[in-house]
Amino acid sequence: MLEIKNLHARIENKDILKGVDLRLGAGEVHAIMGPNGSGKSTLSKLLAGHEDYTITEGSVSFLGEDLLELAPELRAAKGIFLGFQYPVEIPGVSNMVFLKAALNAQRKARGEKELDAGDFLAWVKHRVKQMQMNPAMLSRGVNEGFSGGEKKRNEILQMLVLEPKLMVLDETDSGLDIDALKVVADGINLMRSKERSVLLVTHYQRLLDYVKPDFVHVLAGGRIVKSGGPELALELEEKGYGWIQQAA
Ligand code: ADP
Ligand code: MG
Ligand code: MG
Fold this sequence. Notes:
This protein is α/β, with parallel strands linked by helices. About 40% of the residues lie in helices and about 30% in strands.
């Protein structure tokens, strides 16, 4: 699914990623943990194609293609979804209009037929129901006046509607109460399949109680300094990061 090799990236002349190696197989869930400022968000944004950084070395291949050569819109169309810690508000554009435009733009870019209004409505309603959302949310402006929990739910709805192949969720659990956390976890688990992979950036073991990762990695100082199974997250919760950084 995704192969990152010796990736180096810098922001404003500061080296942030200093040789990241990571392989995600189809169907796998990988959690990335690590101290603040270690480059987790940089890595996430870089995969989605944001432009604040410069790649100085290394490669990223996604489904056998050179990801770094692809424009951000094409990455989304090919199945990369980036979830944000703070989802953006788009006042005046209804959720329904936004979702339809996003889905059809991706279908078009993949050379698929756009969904007509009826098919789209049926599809989005199915997803709204799965997310236990009030359908009235669809006619409100995207995240306009939504509570933190509602924004999260809405973000996961976007993910369910778009059906990405690689879901990159950057601290999507930060600041969530337990109900909202479960919503996020249920959405991720609903999307888990043999064909899809998840890269879950999180500070807390808590989310991993609900979304069981196959692998846990520690990103520190711009490199993956330790990898393990779910038990590594428990160990980190207990001992913090100091012991790894000393050993690395
Ligand atoms: P994390 O998500 O692990 O907390 P980030 O990837 O957000 O870390 O940040 C890594 C480092 O890059 C930090 O030292 C941060 O200050 C720096 N950084 C991030 N974005 C910018 C930017 N736009 N300009 C300058 N420095 C930045
Ligand atoms: Mg941070
Ligand atoms: Mg971050």
